[in-house]
Design goal:
Rossmann fold; alpha/beta; 18 helices; six-stranded parallel β-sheet; 442 residues; 14 strands; binds uridine-5'-diphosphate-glucuronic acid; binds 1,4-dihydronicotinamide adenine dinucleotide; 2 domains
Length: 442
């Protein structure tokens, strides 16, 4: 099939490459010419494992192209909308400007019978508005939310655990379902379940999935707060409750909380939209979810001050990790960046490293010094804080770092380090909601 993907960011670039690998002829379109220049040369414009290989495969097969000209979408019959829907400045609501700009730019190139497929995450009701907007072109609309995770985006796109088609129940449903079944023939053949819903349900499935994940993380972080106040250990607690299959262990990792370009803005957009339509009370709990999450960042800063004798001012603090999660260079709403900013504001001298996110961080945070290696980052540190659980950080040998630092003190912001090993190497180790032990080593 001939497919266009409008918007080639973290979602769209991966989606375009994955569709080409699946055998379709794909053109990816973006208004960002730098991104298109990179992608056209088969270079991933951001770090995402597997994306360079997928781009290479798509280009080698002659099935993938990128352009900044929307007119290049004219030969496609299926058009995915994958542009950003960030939080509006000064409000919790989603900014839909890019979605409507993309649809309006695409409209002159739509042919009767084309299928426009929304993939961006939007407030319920957006799809219906777009369907009305494109009606004069005789193109049709579907909403097909995306559930991929950054860091696993290519694999999640090739092997989704479910595929949701939002299709208006107006007599054309079977025909449109067949088109989408052809788009997703490869994962469907592998057994990916397909769910067909009304447009509104498909839109709501997406935001409610993210709201549930955010709630699960804030739940365990609330328990971390209780554990901190009572001497319990939240990791043991998560292991114990997670063995109940109704609860499940995944997404019960307490720490500095969730960030990224989706979970935070999606729960806020859901609250804003629910307020707007008069059902704000239904999701009022998400305000607490957001607040618990943001408190984790402040908590790390207070813990740092406590470990440094009452204040971080004038202290050298080393941060391991800048991206919002490992295997990604994405720093959108990253807890690590907020913590770096708060520590600098409190007068600490902050030095940070990350395997992939330094360049992105440098552009938005200038009060921090950046270093290329763990060793140069921790040199003469009064305190080390792990904020993103990159494998290379989790595997650090604590005794190799001890001679480099001014004081062997570490906060494990993701509860991923082997506490006993760090304690045995003489470090003052503090996790998030974990038992407090005294160092046992030299
Ligand atoms: N990043 C992720 O893992 C996932 C994102 N989503 C949703 O997908 C959407 C996109 O997210 P990201 O890719 O992360 O954002 P992003 O900011 O990385 O990418 C958005 C892209 O759209 C482009 N764009 C903006 N206006 C355009 C226009 N008129 N025509 C063509 N291109 C245009 C931008 O230049 C940018 O490259 C959002 O709604 C997000 O919530 C959904 C699932 C996963
Ligand atoms: O809509 C989206 O964009 C995507 O948002 C999330 O994916 P992503 O943002 O890539 O990352 P997650 O793996 O969900 O992690 C989000 C944040 O939660 C944090 N987290 C995750 C799990 C956990 O147990 N504890 C925890 O603090 C991570 O460190 C990270 O900061 C969802 O998992 C995807 O299904 C969804 O498609």
């Amino acid at each position: 099939m001939q497919i266009s993907v409008i918007g080639c960011g973290y979602l769209g670039a991966v989606h375009a490459a994955a569709l080409a690998v699946m055998g379709h002829e794909v053109v990816g379109i973006d208004v960002d010419e730098r991104k298109i220049a990179d992608l056209s040369q088969s270079r991933a414009p951001f770090f995402e494992p597997g994306l360079p290989e997928a781009l290479t495969e798509g280009f080698a097969a002659g099935r993938l192209a990128f352009s900044s000209e929307i007119s290049e979408a004219k030969n496609a019959t299926v058009h995915f909308i994958a542009v950003g829907t960030p939080q509006k400045a000064g409000s919790n609501a989603a900014d839909l400007t890019y979605v409507f700009a993309a649809v309006e730019a695409l409209m002159p190139h739509l042919k009767p019978g084309d299928l426009v497929v929304g993939k961006s995450t939007v407030p319920v009701g957006t799809a219906r508005r777009i369907a009305e907007l494109i009606a004069p072109t005789d193109a049709r609309l579907a909403w097909n939310p995306e559930f991929l995770r950054e860091g696993f985006a290519v694999n999640d796109s090739m092997h989704p655990d479910r595929i949701v088609y939002g299709l208006a129940d107006d007599g054309n449903r079977d025909e449109l379902k067949q088109v989408l079944d052809a788009v997703y023939a490869t994962p469907i053949a592998e057994g990916a379940p397909v769910l067909v819903t009304e447009l509104e349900t498909a839109e709501l499935v997406k935001v409610s999935a993210n709201a549930f994940l955010a709630t699960k993380i804030s739940f365990i972080n609330s328990m971390a707060e209780i554990a901190e106040a009572t001497g319990a250990d939240v990791t043991e607690l998560a292991d114990a409750i997670g063995l109940d299959a109704r609860i499940g262990r995944r997404f019960l990792n307490a720490g500095v909380g969730f960030g990224g370009g989706c979970l935070p803005k999606d729960i806020r957009a859901l609250m804003a939209h629910a307020d707007e339509i008069g059902v704000g009370d239904s999701v009022a709990f998400l305000k607490e979810v957001d607040e618990v999450n943001l408190r984790r960042r402040a908590h790390v800063v207070s813990l740092a001050a406590e470990m440094l004798g009452g204040s971080v001012a004038g202290k050298r603090i080393s941060l391991l990790g800048l991206s919002f999660k490992p295997e990604s260079d994405d720093i959108r709403d990253s807890p690590a960046l907020s913590i770096a900013r708060l520590l600098s504001e409190d007068g600490a001298s902050v030095v940070a490293t990350d395997p992939e996110a330094i360049e992105n961080a440098r552009r938005v945070l200038t009060t921090v010094e950046y270093a290329d290696s763990v060793e140069s980052t921790v040199a003469n540190a009064d305190l080390v804080i792990l904020l993103t659980e990159w494998k290379s950080f989790v595997q650090i040998d604590p005794s190799a770092l001890s001679p480099l630092v001014s004081a062997a003190k570490i906060i494990d912001g993701r509860n991923v380090l082997d506490a006993q090993r760090w304690l045995a190497a003489g470090w003052d180790y503090r996790g998030m909601g974990r038992y407090r032990h005294e160092a046992t080593g030299h």
